[in-house]
Amino acid sequence: MQALRSFKLEVPVDPKFHPKIIGRRGTVVSKIRQDHEVQITMPDKESERPDVVVITGLEQNAMAARDDILRIVHDFVSSSNDGSSSSSSSGSSSSCSSLTEPFLLLHCKHEQAANGAETAAIDGRVSS
Questions:
Q1: Which residues contact 54 (CB under 8 A, 6 or more apart)?
Q2: What are residue 51's DSSP bridge partners?
Q3: Which comes out higher in pLDDT, residue 11 or 84?
């Protein structure tokens, strides 16, 4: 059971969106942590990888928390880019797929106590 709880998901998110994920006084990130029973670590601006948000917990919970974070980013980008009220829902879907390419390359690391870290790419690309 310990290996299941140590599932680690690294979600690259442009640092300009971090305040939206954190929320005023940490309310948004706290709610995501609480709702999905995960640990979420936001990177420091001076960190080696300032764009990587780390989610740790049960695999299913980490994936659900990741989806919430990506939804926040997508909703913010959609509302920022939506200058007209005539956008269709199919347009927002293609916006989401183009959003994931530049800075939301997702990969996960399933850490195992005895064997080190096992890495797999969610989108099919192998990460190192």
A1: 8, 9, 10, 11, 40, 41, 43
A2: none
A3: 11
Residues in the chain: 128
Structural contact between residues 120 and 112, judged by C-beta atoms closer than 8 angstroms: no
| Exposure on the CB side of residue 35, measured as CA atoms within 13 A | 14
Query: Is the model more confident about 128 or about 12?
Result: 12
Domain locations along the chain = 2-121
More confident residue, 72 or 94: 72
What is the domain class of 2-121 according to CATH? alpha beta
How many alpha carbons lie under 13 Å from residue 14 in its C-beta half-sphere? 12
Closest CA to 6 of 109, 106, 107: 109
